Automatic annotation (TrEMBL):
It is a multi-pass membrane protein. Signal peptide: none annotated. GO terms for biological process: GPI anchor biosynthetic process. The keyword Transferase applies. Its main location: endoplasmic reticulum. It comes from the Bacteria. One of its GO terms (molecular function) is GPI mannosyltransferase activity. Keywords: Endoplasmic reticulum, Glycosyltransferase, GPI-anchor biosynthesis, Membrane, Transferase, Transmembrane, Transmembrane helix. It comes from Leifsonia poae. One of its GO terms (cellular component) is membrane. It is found in: Endoplasmic reticulum membrane. This is Integral membrane protein. The chain crosses the membrane at residues 35-58, 131-150, 157-176, 182-201, 208-231, 251-274, 311-338, 350-366, 395-416. Pathway: Glycolipid biosynthesis; glycosylphosphatidylinositol-anchor biosynthesis.
Amino acid sequence: MPGSPVPAAPEEAAPQHRLLERPAQREAAPWWTRWWVRVLAVYLAARAVTTAFLLILANAQGMNQWTAAHPGYFDFAAIWDGRWYNIVSISGYPAALPTVDGVHVTENAWAFMPVYPGVVNVVEFLTRMPWPVAAVTVSFLCGAGAALVFHRLLRTLGFSPSTALFAVVLFCVSPVSPLFQLAYAESLYILLLVVALDLLVERRYVALFPVVLVMAFTRPSGLAFALALAMHVVYRWVKRDSDPFPPRERVLGVSLTVFSGLAGLAWPAIAGIATGSWTAYTDTELAWRAPYIGYTHLVPFSSWFQGADWWFGYMLGLPGWLGVVTLLIVLVLFGIALFTPPVRRLGPDLRFWIIAYSVYLLAVFFPQSSTFRLLMPLFPLLGALAIPKSRVYRTALVVLFLALQVGWLLVCWGVDGADWSPP
């Protein structure tokens, strides 16, 4: 059953009669004023700008391990992890884990989940497109779908048409939005995630099961989503007097939480069974941080503190404890931001996801250049950034995002020799 409306600020309230227009009124409106036309127009305009950025960068790109100098767009868009997904699509996963010295596991395909390369393979087979073209096409279409569902989600939460559309603008021009047209799994994952969040807000638990499953085999997400679902179930239980929580929905909510947790553990289990090493997946993931801090074991919630010490101590030549203090300050400020009025406007379920995913990142990931990409699932916060209506503010924010997008492409996407800043 649909969820209760989230309280809205007076200027943001979306009158019910506007959300439920009569068919005759809807038919009378010119086609170019339809919400989905505007969303797609924003998405296409943003992708055109990013394409120009990428073509300029490709023209300046020298020879590298993936392409010749001055590569074409699609070859340039399929480097870095795109090559790993291509390897998965061609040869699958290794039965024996490759090692550097016979002991320490090195980078390998088990870090890359199968749904995205599988979808690309289907598109490649049906259309006879080359793999890079098929991969970029899948990402591009999934990004468009994600923008449409994100707009729908914000309107469901009661955001005004203007605010919802501007949130989509920010979504489409964000610093890591080039991923919507690169051979990475993020575009497909974000589409699945925004669909899952929309279903959660509407409390359509049954429909969530297949989405959660596919999402867990697209990008690591099952454990984080399970935590968000657990908070959702507890919140509904606490609020059951004012917002009924029928027994059927209790059973479905708890079952979905357990299911999501098991889905999150499934890929590491599959890697363990296939390779004979129960730590195959975590050892593979740890290989990507070895160039920074060497080969270590995964100790939950230690990685960001190790990273803070490394970045401040080794890279900046400052006392390592200063990095730890800075990290703690950032975490406190982030926690305070979650209780500010604009973020509260997102409603409890989106905030549960933001908290759960942030905790997950803090628990298992090491901060380095890929962190910008890994922050992408926190996109619901763009809804809060979109609330102010000042034209100066909105223009400045778009300009800032485009500038940061260029910075991200220059630092993370372009390849400069033995590059240590992967996207």
